[in-house]
Amino acid sequence: MTGDQLTVTSIVERAEKFHADREVVSRRSSGVTDRTTYGACARRARRLAGALSDLGVNEGDRVATLLWNQSEHLELYFAVPAMGAVIHTLNPRLFPDELAFIVEDAEDSVIVVDETLLEVFETFRSTYDFTHIIVVTHTGRAPAGTLDYESLVAGAEAADWPALDENSAAAMCYTSGTTGRPKGVVYSHRALVLHSLVAALPDQLAVSARDTVLPVVPMFHANAWGLPYAAALAGARLVLPGPRVDAESVLDLCSYEQVTMTAGVPTVWMAMLAALDNEPERWQLTELDRLIVGGSAVPRAMFEGFDRHGLTVVQAWGMTETAPLGAVCRLPSRLDQSNADEQYNYRARQGTATPLFHIRARDEDGNTIAWDDAAMGELEVRGPWVATGYHAGRGADSFTADGWFKTGDVVRIDPHGCIRICDRSKDLVKSGGEWISSVDLENKLMSHPAVSQAAVIAVPDNRWGERPLAVVARRPGTEVSADELRAHLAQEFAKWQLPDRFEFVDAIPCTATGKFKKTDLRTQFATV
Ligand code: AMP
């Protein structure tokens, strides 16, 4: 074997040589749709790499992006890893303080910002000294003190791609921790290439040259689940929705662009289902073959609801630490003749591990559980696209001594290896696909002079999947209202992270070791 290195460059070159005419569509915030091709994106990526080198970006340097799903982001997905630098995608929904921490922690050099995200950028700009700020403008004028993306691309010489080690860093993404600061996950070239190959397999996400792929999942969330690279590798047409991902906008795009597959968190599809139920005839979705849904548990009602419209939902499970794809739930042929109830129950599971990805689950005593669909344990994983550590050595306790990553998801596994998430050992709330740390909220609440105890739990929510609920015990003789506590939290948390509900109690039940008994709280308040 010639032993060529598995690098993102090979994906970029393939897109350029073999899929040059395949379309890449970007819908802008204005509603205007721009059309380009993989060939043009790859050629522009060479010039972009030339421009970044001229600005002093070297191999290993981090290039931050604050962009939507748009063709410029794809160009950066191509250019930055292929030139040997590391693309670091920033989540504009984070609190300014978190963004400030993340860019500092990653030691980003250059940042590329979409014009429509400049307001977000301004909230943390002064905290960090980027070497250059590049702005993607749609009005044609970059603000003073910044560089214009288009002018840079137009004015630079095309770079030649350097030979790279497949184990070198290609991309980076931060994930929220249970407590404290977000942690950086660094993806190697090898991980991204193998992930793309496996994601494209028929029983996985099944990405082919005949597909038109619409990633609703943002390109700042774990590489948009690997779809941009898988699509470029396969030669699938790519439709990038920009900032507007409300149900009607996504349905319009699916219908107009004849999308065959799309992917995102349940919140998006809940809204989409409601829109379809309201106006079943409005959209032509005859080409739409599958909706990949993950990031949070997919309720059974969602499978049933989309089935009524002739649309197939496929559940997938993954994590930022796993690049992200780890499991996909496809109905096995042995269940073809089963009744609808059995089939729905199966499809509502998180699925079987993707090829080359290994799973096990261990109980609280550290014993590996049987695959009998009864025993429960924390899911542990390993594989070519599973992180072995976080950036700067953080979170070492998430990795076992024998090389497995502890997911914090509590699962049952059936005899065929199909997992079902039953609980979460990490103290987090996942709302609309974004994490909220219960512990951070609790600490901030307990810093209020009128609060003696505070526990934050996740409660089910039809729209967002989960929402935080705060259970608070006041200090004797003090008074504080829910609104006052919300204002107190708003000093450090984004609006969407604030609990919608506060329940005041005399005392919060605790375990023998002094931890809040959150299971009791969930039973008491989850359905109120
Ligand atoms: P993130 O790193 O933000 O992508 O979050 C990963 C976590 O999201 C997992 O550890 C799970 O807790 C949750 N998650 C992802 N996919 C699913 C799914 N299909 N069902 C339930 N939870 C999921």
TrEMBL record:
InterPro entries per record: AMP-bd_C (IPR025110), AMP-bd_C_sf (IPR045851), AMP-binding_CS (IPR020845), AMP-dep_synth/lig_dom (IPR000873), ANL_N_sf (IPR042099)
Species name: Mycolicibacterium rhodesiae (strain NBB3) (Mycobacterium rhodesiae)
CDD domains (alphabetical): ttLC_FACS_AlkK_like
GO molecular-function term, one example from the UniProt record: long-chain fatty acid-CoA ligase activity
A Pfam family annotated for this UniProt entry: AMP-binding_C
Family under the similarity heading: Belongs to the ATP-dependent AMP-binding enzyme family.
Reaction equation(s) it catalyzes: a long-chain fatty acid + ATP + CoA = a long-chain fatty acyl-CoA + AMP + diphosphate
Domain AMP-binding enzyme C-terminal: 441-515
UniProt keyword annotations, A-Z: Fatty acid metabolism, Ligase, Lipid metabolism
Name by which UniProt lists this protein: Long-chain-fatty-acid--CoA ligase FadD13
Enzyme Commission number, as recorded: 6.2.1.3
Residues annotated as domain AMP-dependent synthetase/ligase: 13-391
